[in-house]
């Protein structure tokens, strides 16, 4: 489902919610799937609690590390739900991101696996359209595929 300010994506992953949580909550695991390959991901901060920081960097080839996410977690319910935003940084500090989003991620046990769903909220239809045109479905879809490849057995 996609609305004028919201983009969504879901996939059934053949692994339990506990495995999805481990892929999210351990920085070395998150680095393996959070950004579509061959772009590399570095996790600088992953503090899974309300107000905790979420900072990742990305790099193509041997280039310099570039900003990716500078955000803050709003909610963290182990094995069930994560919510982060880019309009705040660690400790609820206001930010002026290049793309303002709030992402609501849910991990629902289903059919012996996990229905992994992401709802990404934007401040206006223009930002949502820009994110969609940048390849939201392909990029987030590839990352979720990488997540599945990491944890499915």
From TrEMBL:
Phylogenetic lineage: Bacteria, Pseudomonadati, Pseudomonadota, Alphaproteobacteria, Sphingomonadales
Domain (Activator of Hsp90 ATPase homologue 1/2-like C-terminal) ranges: 14-152
Family: Belongs to the AHA1 family.
CDD domains: SRPBCC_CalC_Aha1-like_3
Protein name from the UniProt record: Polyketide cyclase
Organism superkingdom: Bacteria
One Pfam family it belongs to: AHSA1
Organism of origin: Sphingopyxis lindanitolerans
């Amino acid at each position: 489902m996609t609305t004028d300010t919201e983009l969504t994506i879901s996939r059934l992953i053949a692994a339990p919610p506990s495995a999805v949580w481990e892929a999210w909550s351990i920085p070395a695991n998150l680095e393996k799937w959070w950004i579509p390959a061959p772009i590399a991901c570095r996790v600088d901060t992953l503090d899974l609690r309300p107000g905790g920081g979420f900072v990742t960097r990305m790099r193509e080839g041997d280039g310099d590390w570039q900003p990716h996410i500078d955000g803050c977690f709003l909610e963290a319910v182990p094995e069930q739900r994560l919510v982060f935003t880019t309009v705040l940084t660690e400790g609820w500090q206001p930010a002026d991101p290049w793309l303002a989003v709030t992402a609501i991620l849910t991990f629902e046990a289903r059919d012996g696996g996990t229905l992994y769903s992401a709802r990404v909220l934007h401040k206006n239809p223009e930002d949502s359209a820009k994110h969609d045109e940048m390849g939201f479905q392909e990029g987030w879809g590839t990352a979720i595929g990488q997540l599945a490849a990491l944890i499915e057995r």
